[in-house]
């Protein structure tokens, strides 16, 4: 148990959210393969609100939010409003969060994911494009193809339920977009487990 806690603490990092694609800028062409081996072109979803969610099956910060059902609830809300939700695993083969195609399909089934697709970013190029270093991480793209939000899923910096008020950053950013308002909090501090980039 102590070993697990020490590992969890070692994985935790807190840093300013920084995207290679800056908030407010148009997102360039992104191509990836989903868990079923199909090619996903982000440009095919132009005109829709798109959520990119970085996760890792080895990260307790990501898994807590799945076990609590928070991520799936927001996935269903986004898809129900004709938005697109793309879950992304960017760990390289040497990373603890790397998933094979079969493992990715099992991940989707186990967590009852409502995501449009799960992208296996095995060469970490999508994570590098957005400057993503940790999981969980959320990037939201507006209907015009611009990055509207980058940062944490919520303000709870722990891997379990938090005491006090938790701000639902991703949910709030989406509400702003759906009501036609500018996103009021467009960049937030991220925390969680380091993504092991492919070499």
List the helices and strands and how they pair.
Elements: H1 2-11, E1 13-15, E2 31-33, E3 39-41, E4 50-54, H2 60-67, H3 70-80, E5 84-89, H4 101-110, E6 117-120, H5 125-130, E7 134-135, E8 137-141, E9 147-151, H6 169-178, E10 190-194
Parallel strand pairs: 4-5, 5-6
Antiparallel strand pairs: 1-10, 2-3, 4-8, 7-10, 8-9
Quick synopsis:
This protein has 199 residues and is an alpha+beta fold. The chain has 6 helices and 10 strands; from the N terminus they run αββββααβαβαβββαβ.
Structure description:
The longest helix has 11 residues, at 70-80. Helix content is 28%, strand content 21%. Strand 2 (31-33) and strand 3 form a beta hairpin. It has a single domain (31-194), classed as 3-Layer(aba) Sandwich (Glutaredoxin), CATH 3.40.30. It is globular, with a radius of gyration of 16 Å. The strands form three sheets. Strands 6-5-4-8-9 form a five-stranded mixed β-sheet. A three-stranded antiparallel β-sheet has the order 1-10-7. The chain has a two-stranded antiparallel ribbon with strand order 2-3. The chain has 199 residues and is α+β, with helices and mostly antiparallel strands.
């Amino acid at each position: 148990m102590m070993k697990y806690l020490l590992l969890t603490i070692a994985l935790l990092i807190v840093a300013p959210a920084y995207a290679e694609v800056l908030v407010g800028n148009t997102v360039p062409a992104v191509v990836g393969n989903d868990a079923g081996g199909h090619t996903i072109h982000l440009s095919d979803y132009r005109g829709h609100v798109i959520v990119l969610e970085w996760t890792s099956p080895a990260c307790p910060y990501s898994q807590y939010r799945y076990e609590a059902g928070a991520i799936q609830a927001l996935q269903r809300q986004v898809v129900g409003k004709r938005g697109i939700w793309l879950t992304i695993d960017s760990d390289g083969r040497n990373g603890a969060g790397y998933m094979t195609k079969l493992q990715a399909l099992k991940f989707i089934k186990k967590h009852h994911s409502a995501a449009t697709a799960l992208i296996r970013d095995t060469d970490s190029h999508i994570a590098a494009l957005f400057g993503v270093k940790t999981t969980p991480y959320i990037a939201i793209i507006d209907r015009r193809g611009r990055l509207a939000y980058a940062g944490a899923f919520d303000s709870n910096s722990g891997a379990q339920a938090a005491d006090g008020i938790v701000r639902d950053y991703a949910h709030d950013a989406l509400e702003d977009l759906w009501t036609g308002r500018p996103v009021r909090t467009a960049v937030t501090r991220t925390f969680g487990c380091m993504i092991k980039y492919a070499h």
